[in-house]
Amino acid sequence: MRTFDSYVELCALFKENPHQDGARLVDPDLKMDFLYAVYDALRELPNSIHKSVLKSMINAICQENLVLRRKDEVRAMYILVQCPMFGHQSSCLIFAQLLRRIVHLPASDHQMLVHWLKILEVPRLRSMVRNLMHFLSLRQFPTADPTHALPEPNKIKWWIPTAARMLAFINAANNSCRPPLLHFSELYHEALDHIDLAADYFRWQDPSPCSSHFSYCQYPFILSINAKRLILTKDSEQQQMINARRSLETKASRQVSQVDIFFLNMTVRRSHLVEDSLKEIQRASERKELKKKLRMTFAGEPGLDMGGLTKEWFQLLVREIFDPDKGMFVYHPHSRCYWFRIPSSARTWDTAESASRAVTAPSSPVAGAAVEAELVQDDDDAVVARLVAASEEEESLQQYNLIGVLMGLAVYNANILDLRFPSVCYQKLLSPPVVPHADLHLGVVRNPSLDDLAQIMPDVAHGLRELLAYQGDVEQDMCLTFQASIEEFGAVKTFPLKQGGEDIAVTNQNRKEYVRLYLDWMLNTAIYNEFRSFYLGFHSVCASNALIMLRPEEVEMLVCGCPRFVLHDLRKVTEYDGYQSESAAVQ
Q: Are 488 and 370 in contact (CB under 8 A)?
């Protein structure tokens, strides 16, 4: 087993060219099939051989001052970290030393390692993740068995941070692949659901210089959706207690019952649901009470809200706002989801005017910014028409803000909403995850793709793919110009995608530009003001560092629940009344 005795031997055996100096970013230039075959054979050998190999690895890892060709050190570590024997507890000390060496490599080697991880076969990458998870569990939940005792905890405090860092490299490699090699949930360490997550989160939040303790929140991809939901709940409770204390301080000036200060009390009429909800949310925002526990009352109806009235309010409000007659959202039958209605005043290529509108557009009923129409000297009918249009636009933006607040309240109060937004909507909600001081480019997806558009309009995305792949003369055969068209109430409206777009033909040479501009207009520009209000409404409730830890898919799960049912999981919690799992009716 001298092969594993040193980095020199490893590189001599597995490098395609043993004399190669340096390495390529895209490929480690190793005999990967041969390496896989060696490890597969090693897995089937007896334990005595495993022990010999592990002893050889110790020699290789602990050797100092070796004379190696450039990048052979990171190559050797890349070879060793794939070893299947690191899934056994007996190898944890050696695995820890290897991970420590990897973490202490220079940043350029880390970048190279991330790229090399992308070319691994998926089962190999999955096996590596499994070994790292097992290693984390050994340190986080040490066994009481004296035959498998670990060194003293103070001596191995670095084990968890180094394993988490290695998982971060794998996560970076996975996220840079399209599609990802692993589903993001495969990097969850669900055993961590049982640690003190609140303490871990608040330790991560601690800004004091002396707070240098490790926190799993630094590596949120490790935490499961259940763990993140618990962290959000604890953060919500902390915010609610802070608001309650503030209310206690002002209680002397207002006659408020002791219990009411802990709740966001809202009273609405069923006949004026949207209007009353807007007023109540504006009032709550002015008093900074949006992060209190929600408690609903329907005017003229006796009843104490134990959760049912709040849930009913959510359901009724969602149903009314998404009513097609409201015209706020458009249902796309091909994707079975809703998307923002593109207004007739949608922004186009004129970025200067767009930026001006973005600043002056009312962000929410909370902000209360009125639209100031620039009235020209014109006849009275034109002036009235513009005033009416401005008023309607402000009311529309307020309602978009309301649905954003509604989603935020649902997350904060652990309610599931019956919403059907595409995943790109949640991606936009986290762009950026924290509202910046400069109020520009909120909810903008950078470099949107055809896959993003396909979530909403798969037929349109398919047509654009056909355009890009078309072998004939695009200009002569398709007769397209740099315009986007939408149908609204039976009428087709067109919008230029660039200055003079109505006169610029789409050709074989500029069709990529056309697709890029079309995607950006459809997913960002055309609905910027509407989504901005929606974005600010959501973040007015959910503004929290905990939100930084979430992926768009996880936000969707918190708002809408799991979008897909797994039959295996459903069977585990199913209770049969008069039937058995093997009954013909059940099967």
A: no
Residue 230, pLDDT above cutoff 80: yes
Burial class of 97 by CB neighbour count within 10 A (0 to 12, 13 to 18, 19+): middle
Q: Pick from 462, 460, 430: which is nearest to 444 by CA?
A: 430
Residues 6+ apart with CB under 8 A from 393: 343, 345, 361, 371, 529
Tokens of 516: 């890029």
3-class SS letters over 135-167: HHHHHHCCCCCHHHCCCCHHHCCCHHHHHHHHH
How would residue 349 be classed by pLDDT, with cut points 50, 70 and 90? low
Q: How far is CA 162 from CA 14, 49, 101, 139, 282, in A?
A: 26, 28, 9, 12, 47
Length of the chain in residues, anyone? 587
Omega before residue 432 within 30° of 0, cis: yes
Q: Which amino acid is at 146?
A: P
Helical H segments across 63-158, by residue range: 72-80, 92-103, 107-117, 122-140
pLDDT at residue 235 above 70? yes
Separation between Cα atoms, residue 129 and residue 547, nearest integer Å: 25
Sign for the CA dihedral angle at 214, 217, 220, 224 comes to positive
Which structure tokens are listed for 53? Answer: 């190999």
Could you read off the pLDDT of 472-492 as tens digits, one per residue?
Answer: 999 999 999 999 988 776 778
Are 80 and 98 a contacting pair, CB within 8 Å? yes
Structure letter (DSSP) for residue 22: S
Look at the alpha carbons of 387, 388, 391, 393 in this order and tell me if their dihedral is positive or negative: negative
Residue 402: how many CA atoms within 13 Å on its side-chain side?
A: 25
535-567 burial: b if 16+ Cβ within 10 Å, else e = bbbbbbbbbbebbebbbbebbbbbbbeeeeeee
Per-residue pLDDT at 83: 93
For residue 335, the number of C-alpha atoms closer than 13 Å in the C-beta half-sphere is 23
Alpha helices in 371-429 (DSSP H): 380-412, 423-429
Q: Quick one: tokens of 507? A: 């050709």
